[in-house]
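pinned: reference chain
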Amino acid sequence: MMAASPNLAQTAHKTPFSAREIPFADLPGIEREDFGAAFEVFAASCKALAEDRPPLRIGRRPSPALLALCRRVAEEAPIQRDVQTARAFFAQNFRPFVIEPHDANGTGQAFFTGYYEPVVEASLTPTPFLATPIFGRPHDLVSLPFDHPSGLTAMRRCADGRLVPYPDRAAIAAGALCGHAAPLAYVRDEAEAFLIHVQGSARLLLPEGEARLVYAGRNGHPYRSIGRMLIERGEISPQSMSLAALKGWIRAHGQKSGEAGLALLHANPSYIFFHLEKALSSEGPIGGAGLPLTPLLSLAIDRSLWPYGTPVWIDARLPWETPEPTPFQRLMIAQDTGSAIVGPARADLFMGSGEAAGARAGDIRHHGTFIVLLPRDEEVLP
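pinned: its structure tokens
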């Protein structure tokens, strides 16, 4: 088998890695995969790429080989294919590469987490029990390319045209958005709002009916994991860490000025802004690629490395069906990204919407194997 590195990736990331090609037939668990479902999600990505639709979050441009393949798929019909026909399509058009990061922990393995769309009670006006605002995109926010020399992904444009760093989470909580952004809705508390920020979307249960929060930008500051901070401080063990445990700790330690729960939230300077969709569709939340996400088929990747639409084979043991880890071996499509999703073999798996999906997502912090499928015409460096 050939040892190689995709040239599209090595040029864009500080974490070195190797890419080892394997035969398509050797993909772990291939005999159980529903390639038809994966192809339908891939075809939706192809249609967006072929039409050059702008994504919600700008990422690496698709290679000429991937774009040519997507244009061909977009021109063909139907997008539904049976398992065998879809498997033949991927086998004929892609080469699998196991991505092995050369990172500080020395595992050489991928790292997977899960995410979901929260479903929360909310109001369009503040109430005694729903008083924490979710803000729309500020008018002075300027989104920047992921490789901007400032190291930031967004900045504030001043009245004189200068670009300066946008206020961080603590400054925004202190009123730095006054006159620059309007609240879209109100939720229970800062912990609830923070969870919505981390997940990048939410379905709101309003007195008037349901609505959806769609990602509309961020303040550009780097994401810092407050869950990791609690683990490092010995507040929560790695085995006990989950979204529910994190939210519980914040609420138990207070969310008022000077209290530990709020101080922990402010330790992550990143802040997310949204757009409110009042006409809720039956499809999933919108990911970074600008497309509805599909549970267990859409995943978030490092957008500086892998283009949207890239097929990725995931091989891991995850608690995705039961609390006990079981094999998770399937083809997923890169349709989203996230501030915490950084690295060549880092992925966030979309688990769905609601409490049950959130419980599954919160339990996933596991190592495994990340196998990227590159078009056969893709240039690969030895």
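why pinned: Residues 35-50 form the longest helix (16 residues). The CA atoms of residues 311 and 333 lie 5 Å apart.
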